[in-house]
Amino acid sequence: MLFENISVLKEDFTVGNGQYVGVREGKIAYCGAQPPEGDWGERFDGRRALLTPGFVNAHSHAPMVLLRGYAENLPLQRWLNEKVFPFEDRIDANSMYAGTLLAAAEMARFGVCSFTDMYMQIPTMAKAIVESGLKCNLCRGLTVFDGSAYKELSNYTDNIAFLKELDGAGDGRLKIDFCIHGEYTSHPGAVADVAAHAKEAGVHIHVHVSETQSEVQACKQRHGKTPVRYFYDLGLFDQPTTAAHCVWLEEEDFALLKEKGVTVAACPVSNMKLASGFADVPRMLEAGINVALGTDGAASNNNLNLFKDLFLFATLYKGRSGDPTVVTPAQALAAATVNGWRSQGRPDCGMIREGAPADLVVFDLDTPWMYPQTDVINNLVFAAQGSDVRLTMVDGRVIYQDGEYKTIDIEKVKFEVQKGTDAILGVVR
Fold first, then answer.
1. Quick one: CA torsion of 339, 341, 342, 346, rounded to 10 degrees?
2. Quick check: 345 and 299 in contact, CB under 8 A?
3. Residues ≥6 apart with Cβ < 8 Å to 310
C-alpha cells in the first residue's frame, strides 16, 4: 500500500505534510516527500489525513468487556470480591474467546495496534488475538497465597508451557510474559519463584503495583515495606517489567522503579472511576521513568478507547499540580505510542521510518473539531476522538478501515458476547 500526500507524525512529534509512505511485506519500505517509483498496490489518498505510528494499550484485561456496565460504584476491593471475581469464575471458553475478539475489535477501531494484557484461559485468548491480527504481550494473571501450591500447579506447568507453545505465534505478534497479579494476591515465595523463572526464560513481567492507598498500607503492615520495595527485594523487577497503576508511590519508590527500568502503565480513567487516586505522572517523567498509557479493563473504564485516557493523561496532572506546563502533548503521545512499544520489548516499532514494522494508524483531519489546524499535535491530543481513526494497520495488514473490520466477524462476536454475559448474570446477579 502507498499512502499518498499524507501528513505524518514524525519521531520528534512534529508533523511533516505532503508525505509518501510505502508499505511492502509488512514493513515500511519508503518514506519521502516525492512519489516513489514502482507498483505499490493499493493507494490511499492521504489529503486531510494524518498517519501516525500504532498506539499501544499498555495495561488491559481484554475479556473484561464481558463485564462492561456490570460492576459499578464500588471501591476496588469490594468491586473485585463482590462482583468481578464471582463473574470471572463462570467465564467459559466460548465467552473468553468472543470477549477477546470484541476487545481486539474495539482497540483496533481506536488505533491500538498492540496491547499488554493480563488475564486467564491463555490458550483461548491467544487463539483470538492471533486471529484478530493485533500484537499482544499476554500473561496469566497469577493469584496465589500458598507458595508450595504455586510451585506445584503453576510455575513448572502453565508459565513454561505457555511460553513454549504460544510465544511467537502469529508470525511473532504474540509474546508471552510472566505475571504476578499483585502483592495482596500473592505469596512472597511465589513472587520470588516467578522472578527467578522469568530471568531464566528471559521474559517480561506484568504486575499491578500500588493501585490503592489501602493496598500500600496493608503491604507495609504485612512486610514492613511498600509494594515497590517488596517486589524489588524479591527480584521481580530484575526483568523488564510493566507495573500497572502506581498511584500511591512513596519517596523511595520512584528511584527504585527508575533504577530497574520499570515501565509504569498509567490508567487515569480507571483510577478515577474506582476512586483509587491519581498517579504522580509529572514526577515519574521528571525521574526519567518510562511511562506508558493503558485503559485497564472495560469493567472499570468502561471502554477501550485509548483516546479517553490520552486526553485525561494530558490534562489531569495540570489540574492536580496547578502547573499547566506538566505533561506536554508530546509526552502524552509518547506514552501512548513509543513508550508502550518499548515496554513490550518491541523497540523497532512505534516510528515511521524505512525498515520499521508497518504498524500504522490514519486519522481523519477533516472534522469540525480538528479545525483550524494551527497545531495538529495539540489537536490530536486535546480535540481528536478515537472515532476519527480511519485505518489501523498491523505489520502491513489492514485490521480496520472506514467502518469495516477486516479480520473479525463483528456481528457474530457481539452476539456471542451478549449471550455469554446473559448466561453468567443469570447465575451471579
1. -170
2. no
3. 293, 332, 333, 335, 336, 381
* pLDDT tens profile 146-179: 655 555 544 446 788 899 999 999 999 999 999 9
Three-state secondary-structure class, residue 45: strand
Amino acid symbol at 268: P
Instruction: Please report which residue ranges of 206-280 form alpha helices under DSSP H.
Output: 213-223, 227-233, 251-260, 268-273
The reported pLDDT for the residue numbered 146 is 64
- Give the residue-averaged pLDDT of 249-265: 98
Q: How far is CA 346 from the centre of its chain?
A: 13
Tally of CB atoms within 10 A around 93: 12
The predicted model scores a pTM of: 0.96
Q: Which residues of 153-169 are buried (b: 16+ CB within 10 A; e: fewer)?
A: ebbeeebbebbeebbeb
pLDDT of residue 79: 85
What are the cell numbers at 386? Answer: 478515537
Q: Give me the torsion for CA of 109, 110, 111, 115, rounded to 10°.
A: -100
Strands 15-24 and 2-9: antiparallel
217: left (phi over 0), alpha (psi -120 to 50) or beta: alpha
Backbone torsions φ then ψ of 387, nearest 5 degrees: -70, -5
Percentage of the chain lying above the pLDDT 90 cut:
89
User: Cα separation of 142 and 144, whole Å?
Assistant: 6
Cα–Cα distance between 302 and 300 in angstroms, integer? 5
Give the torsion sign (CA, 280, 282, 284, 290): positive
H helices of 31-184, in order, are 76-78, 85-88, 93-109, 122-132, 147-150, 160-166
Regarding beta strands 2-9 and 49-53, do their DSSP bridges make them parallel or antiparallel, or are they unpaired?
Answer: parallel
